[in-house]
Design a protein that fits this description.
The protein is mostly helical. Among the domains are: about 30 residues, no CATH class; about 55 residues, no CATH class. The protein has four helices and two strands, in the order ββαααα.
Length: about 130
């Protein structure tokens, strides 16, 4: 492996060291600045067993349509719990959210959407015409 000889960039140390080709190293081993330490993940409330905001919303939606006990519903709850975890990074959260939305779609397949005011008015009109 080829390397080149460099002189340490430090003001007090002018020691020569070998630097591999392609490396951007400017300091010798004794003078190199400390590396940045990774930041600790932010701990969200709810790590003590209580559901987080995503899990609570998923459970409420599934209970409203009676699909919480289904396999698909339980998968949605599990993925929502995973999304609420503090150790999930941005990229991982994106992947979990994508899987969560697909699982929720499968869990809610076949469920009629909730009626709105227009649907209610149309149903009243049909009932009056029949009577």
């Amino acid at each position: 492996m080829a390397s080149e000889r460099k002189t340490c960039k430090s003001a007090t140390c002018h020691q020569k060291f070998s630097r591999p080709l392609g490396s951007r190293r400017e300091y010798c081993e004794t003078c190199r600045p400390p590396r940045k330490k990774p930041q600790a993940p932010v701990v969200l409330p709810g790590g003590s067993g209580e559901p987080g905001p995503i899990e609570a919303a998923a459970v409420a939606e599934l209970e409203a349509v009676g699909r919480l006990g289904s396999v698909e519903g339980q998968l949605v709850v599990r993925l929502a719990r995973e999304a609420d975890r503090a150790s999930v990074s941005g990229t991982q959260l994106s992947a979990v959210a994508d899987r969560l939305l697909k699982a929720k779609e499968a869990a809610l397949a076949g469920v009629a959407p909730p009626g709105d005011l227009v649907d209610e008015l149309m149903e009243r009109r049909r009932a009056r015409r029949r009577a």
